[in-house]
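Office hours follow-up: a student asked to see two folded examples consecutively, so here they are.
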Amino acid sequence: MEIERLYGLYRNSAGVTTDSRAVKKGEIFFALKGPAHDGNRHAAAALEAGALASIVDDHSLSGERIIVVDDVLEAMSALAACHRKRLQMPVIGITGTNGKTTTKELLTAVLSRRGRVHSTPGNFNNHIGVPLTLLSAPDDAAFLVVEMGANHMGEIAALCKVSMPTHGIITSIGTAHIEGFGSMENIRKAKSELYQSLRESNGTAIYNDDNPVLCELVSGMTNGVPYSAPGGHTLSAAPAGDDLMLLKVKAVIDGKEHYFETGLFGSYNIDNVRAAMAAGLLFGVPEDEIIDAISSYRPSNNRSQVTETGRNTVIRDAYNANPSSMENAIASFAALKADKKMVILGDMLELGSESAHGHAAVIRQLRNIGDIRAVLVGPLFREAAADFPATLFGTSEAAAEWLKSERPEGYTILVKGSRGIMLEKVFPLL
């Protein structure tokens, strides 16, 4: 089917879905294939559930509302790009090693003071999530904020071809998914694919001018906006104390000082706050509205999230982990004033050849701090901590069983690890 014809069908639909179990009447079902499932097998069920049409790439299928294409994912991406071309609002792409989702959430809160913002749900930031984000974007949105993740070269470039960002933010460049990228240099090149897209489209890079790597990558761009000078303003922001549970900020905007508290744990979140403030000023959000939006934001996604359980104070930062984010989180945690402190740390995955070095560095950091009870989960930490006095578990399930009997109380606890370790299983026991 020609993409324009498919787009006409989409414009008369109730939206799109890739989940045959959750089809709403009038939606178009895209029958994606994955490692463990084949959506083609559910095309008929989706139609029975009320789908307007099922898009499949199994050429043995046929029917009145079954549309056969060469590749379902390619068709969905092409449809998303077709829709994107018709959207007139600014599209802000966000990528980076650390801080993507937090920056997206803060920026969404800030820009919402100017109008309706459509943004990536959760961290649905891959080759499936980005097209779905675009295809759910309403025509009347004032801004579109698209988070883009990658673990291989070329993925950000491909996502940019679909999302066509007018503005872009790279939050940071560090060691994550190095197993897929092969080297730090490749990570750097991959993240900078966002800047290359903006160069080609004459878009605008909003960049951290305190980061020499990002300054180098943005050099030569016609439209580079540093965090310190957005839209004719001057901006500085820094933590107002490093021993506090929640990040407090001293910001100076056009010479006027502001002090405010965020709902985020850790001074390392300051660059995410700076990004949201800079973008807000660039898009004309009044400074008081920016500060109120950031102050009011409370994470609910296991990222820099502080929870009082009744027995302990728990810092939930267990959605992802890599050496730089782990080091930053532990450093902020060590600076806290608390009588009893515990870390529950899970393996950092997808580090490839850097894995042993990365986990050993965490152990050295803990050893140097010295006054924190350490619970380590996963085979990589088990190997790295062979001569370190930590409580070791192979899995999060085993750690949860131990916590059932241990029942720690009166602790301030940092929980951090890669998503694949599933440390969320320990939260009910804290």
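And the second, which I mentioned at the end of office hours:
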Amino acid sequence: MSAAIIFGLLLALMLTGMPISISLGLTVLTFLFTMTQVPIESVALKLFTGIEKFEIMAIPFFILAGNFLTHGGVARRMINFASSMVGHWHGGLGLAGVIACALFAAVSGSSPATVVAIGSIILPAMIAQGFPSRFGAGVITTSGALGILIPPSIVMVMYSVSTNTSVGQLFMAGVIPGLMLAALLGLTTWYRAWKNDYPRMEKASLARRLSALRESIWGLLLIVIVIGGIYTGVFTPTEAAAMSAVYAFIVAVFIYKDMPLSRVPKVLLDSASMSAMLLYIITNAVLFSFLMTSENIPQAMASWILGQQLSPWVFLLVVNVLLLLAGNVMEPSSIVLIMAPILFPVATSLGIDPVHFGILIVVNMEVGMCHPPVGLNLYVASGITKMGITELTIAVWPWLLTMLVFLVMVTYIPAISLWLPRMLGMM
């Protein structure tokens, strides 16, 4: 009964158009004050201890690093490098866009940031070369979603905070799925370009390729520093985030010199604003999780599902459907923070690896970012392309279907996620 009241209240508040973070907070406070005897002191204590986690510090640092790189010329140099490598293939600029998104994802940790940074440069270039605007928009909208799968990923950090799973293991588990999805999106791009005979670029000389690599090397080195540092144990994921922020600042301001020092306060302010928003969502989600636990809802749900004798593969199918539906009305951070604490105990009871489960959730979030009504990437791409949401939705369908096929593969082949961290001795 209490579960129905809690979720009914949350849904009612969300339907009024209220932000998800405030809806969560009001749901918790209303229920606690009117229907329980929980002392307010314990709520305040839980609120403080819930966000007192070392891993949360990674979020503002990765946001700051991504903003430095977005405002600097890193994205443009990555596109030039990718174009020199694959530009002569069918749909060359589209393929370059996929590769550039994958590379930028590995330094930003954010999906909308990847769409903005890569899309604002490559989409006008694709249209100028003769590609249909729908084709370009479809490529960048879906490839930008790699930002939350290829490490470092802010969504993975949030899953780690919600479930006490190792961030380092999650980051390493995201590498192979990220590269696989990038390859599948690239294949879809190539096939559609080949089928429709879209323009190709002139093959770049070896000298041009080496020049493009030399120009982009400082941005690419950040990938090596973050992933290599975590794997070798030189620093933790949180320390890697701080390191990447300092490195991104030095590269943008002193090496590439694309960002004058006068713009740094603006970037710091934007990063602080975005971090505050995410931390506010986390704070309210922690309260919501506390309420759910105090009412024994996750445990009751776990017992009920186990009582239904559901096999792991049926449970994973249910989870996928549930998360895809949630992706229609909520953005990824909120879904992870609400759903993960509920579904995680059931998954572990059924013997599903927590890291594999985390990657499955992240891939679901990727799909959710590319379809209406609240697909963040659609709105960002709409702002860049000046296309309507309906038109964009039609444009992304071929790549969205590819992502759904990949979701099924990740769901039922755990080795895709777990092979690398196991090989590196992290699990």
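Two things to take away from it. The two ends are 40 Å apart (CA to CA). The first helix runs from residue 2 to 15.
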